[in-house]
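Bump. Still looking for Cytochrome c domain-containing protein structure tokens.
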Amino acid sequence: MSMVRVQITLGILLTIVGLLVVAWVGVNEPKRMEEATASWEARRIEYGAELFERNCTSCHGVDAQGTPGLAPPLNSRELLEQRAAEMGWPGDAFGYIVKTVEGGRLISSRPDQYVGNMPKGDMAMPPWGEQFGGPLTQFDIENIALFLLNFEEFTPEQQAMIEAAQQTEAGGEEAAGGEASLEERAVQIMVNNGCGGCHTIQGVAGMVGAVGPELTKIGAVAAERIADPNYAGEATTPEEYIHESIVNPNAFVVEGFPANVMPQNFGETLSEEDINTLVEYLSSLK
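Sorry for the wait, here they are.
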């Protein structure tokens, strides 16, 4: 075989190999791109979750479950889409979330349910977009929107059923391994009722709010509140003060904090056992 024929044969073989490689890449590229896109979106959702935790949980609660009387839950795509439609938003839920977070909300659209920051004299929800003087970039806000829309798997009702099942399971474990401690029971009550969206207890997961007074040493601070000349309640002991603060929060509003933010009906929605558990636990914080 002449050298020319060898070169021609090698050229044909290389061409065939090249075509096979191109074909293989063409067949697998869509899948690779899909996996790469999914991976990138997952990272954005994770980053959005971090941003939400740092900036939004004080009002909208841990896991976006909302804070009664203060800010609504955001943990359902169905809920968000419904809200966008109610507000007359012409686009999708993603765009509604982005624009709401960017510009904030001047007044609450549901003041009978959620007051936002209005008692402080501020906007119901402050603007978060940097173009409106906020701290977040467009990319940040879009990531938060992706995070919230990732809740589509469960509606609030389904989430409540899951949490109830988890509590039942936890109760069974406690029965098998011993009764839950006072702190565990009290913290569970506070988590279930969104207390961490407004109040802080240092060292307690989820209790990171700043809308209401800090409770880290409320067992000691309660006596000082009773002695305050402006105190108009009826409590004479720290335990009575804490009980009063739960069932009648407007009896004494700590200076610098708004009235009418804490729900007024905990005396009806909480059992006497739950209230007593909270009083006993909070009284021990000194």
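The first helix runs from residue 3 to 55.

Edit: fixed formatting.
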